[in-house]
Amino acid sequence: MKTRRVTAGVASVLALSLGAAACGGGGDDNDGGGNGKKDAALNSIVNASSKKGGTVTYEHSDVPDSLDPGNTYYGWVQNFSRLYGRTLTSFKPAAGKEGLQIVPDLAEGLGKSSPDAKTWTYKLRAGVKFQDGTPVTSKDVKYAIERSNFAPEALSNGPTYFKSYLEGGDKYKGPYKDKSAEGIKSIETPDDRTIIFKLKQPFADFDYLATFSQTAPVPQSKDTGAKYVQAIQSTGPYQFQSYEEGRGATLVRNPQWDAKTDPVRKALPDKISIKFKVNPVTVDNNLLSDKITADAAGTGVQPQTQPKVLRGKYVNQTDSSYAGATQYIALNLKVAPFDNIHCRKAVQWGLDKQSVLDAMGGSPKGDVATTLLPPSVNGYTKFDSYATEGHKGDVAKAKAELKACGKPNGFSTIMTARSDRPAEVAQATAVQASLKKIGINIEIKQFPAGKYFSNFAGVPSYVHKNKLGMLSMAWGADWPTGYGFLDQIINGAAIKPSGGNNLMELDDPKINKALTDAIANTDDAARTKAWGEIDKMVQDNASVVPVIYRKNLLLRPTSATNVTVTQAYLGMYDYLLMGSSK
């Protein structure tokens, strides 16, 4: 339907956008750009190589929420999982704006939509197999979506789009509780290669949704719920040779993968290695010494490393990429005193955002944010509901709001931060110092990133019990439109018992309806305009404190080949454009 036109429109708006991570090492067939140009990977492939073989190595400062494609919501895992899980559609692995294009992956073509955008049909490619040689069918895709969206008792980390938009999604109990062979009726599989989605309302962005790792097929006979991560059945060019929870994984070639059925992946390396729980500064040092291919987190070097790479011999190996992401503070509406809008507005007026940016590393880390939508996402509208000179806050207005909320002398609260993200801890410390000036006393509690949403900040009962009023959050678009950015963090329907991302617990009927009405609108311009209007509604509610439009200061090791910043996975390097390693 209008998906192709929507994609082209988004691509024309975004110069630098979202991203993911990758490189190889020690290749040949250089494209002439080499590793010697600053920001070269933003719009080109650096050190292009067609050489096969070698090992690509990654390190990560914590653990993933899960490497199970149906149980993850981290951007880097969404991209990493494309090595072993093929989805109905995918983002094109290409440099610059071309990386925003949606292309068929497991499906032969993009979705065929009914005129009202409520029915979407995909035809699977012939010849795709699981790693054990079993042919992939439409029923395997259907089952993957059922387990990932309708079984929060086992898989709680992923988004809830399918559950929200499929007919009967609010009633289906999931494959572990539903013992019938039929499953959810609104996903039809009339034959082994056809899958049809019946929606309860129009959804103009459905081809974007089909890129999610939740559509990577899973054979029901091999599914073990939360333990499936220990024995994932690959449909991509790599399969797991080993996986040690909390430590790392090794992937090797999948002999059942057929390049003739896969126009997306080149699969140059022989092996992929990833190690977890590595100190982030150590990760930086290993990049500098060319010991690893890339930082899997893809969020850029640490503040301690920035001075070293911003000058001297390393500066031309850096790419400063807009991440299509906003760093913000969620004020939980169920934790006093943030159940009072005036207490929330006191934080909005009182925060010195410039000091927070400076503490996180200054301009290399991004720009001061005044909206939830970042400038690189389609639908962004420039405004500042709490404008102060130099973004340094307004003490008088903040104290007036404290008086209005019945806390003239201020109050005490708790703020969260992820312990393995020094920049986020630095942010929380700067917020603490800034708000102390108006009488708001903050205790900082740190949690591991890998369990941040599943066990702590994304669990309402834990947040309420422990009175976590201010929650550090960074969010990038699920896909590069306003809906792809906003829905899972401001829609009341996205609040979950665990693994949630609506950390404010915002459930405003007007905002919920505005989201639903906008995504149902097949007029591109009207839909785009609506996202900025919804952003203003969120700012009026004052439960979100935008802090920084994020940038990633990425570092290319000298031996890295086929390096580019992908436009679709949070401004990191693209895993699928990795080369071979020395």
Tell me what the structure shows.
By secondary structure, the chain is α+β, with helices and mostly antiparallel strands. The protein is 25% helix and 18% strand. The chain has helices spanning 3-13, 75-80, 138-149, 161-165, 206-209, 280-288, 306-309, 341-350, 353-360, 395-404, 422-436, 452-456, 460-465, 482-490, 509-520, 524-541; strands spanning 55-59, 89-91, 102-104, 112-113, 119-123, 187-191, 194-198, 238-244, 248-253, 271-275, 294-295, 318-331, 366-368, 411-418, 440-447, 468-476, 544-555. α8 (341-350) runs antiparallel to α10 (395-404) and α14 runs parallel beside α16. The longest helix is centred in the last third of the chain and has 18 residues, at 524-541. The chain is globular and about 70 Å long. InterPro entries: Peptide/Ni-bd, SBP_5, SBP_5_dom. This is Peptide/nickel transport system substrate-binding protein. Keywords: Signal.
List keywords for this structure.
single chain; 582 residues; alpha+beta; five-stranded mixed sheet; disordered N terminus; Peptide/Ni-bd; SBP_5_dom; signal
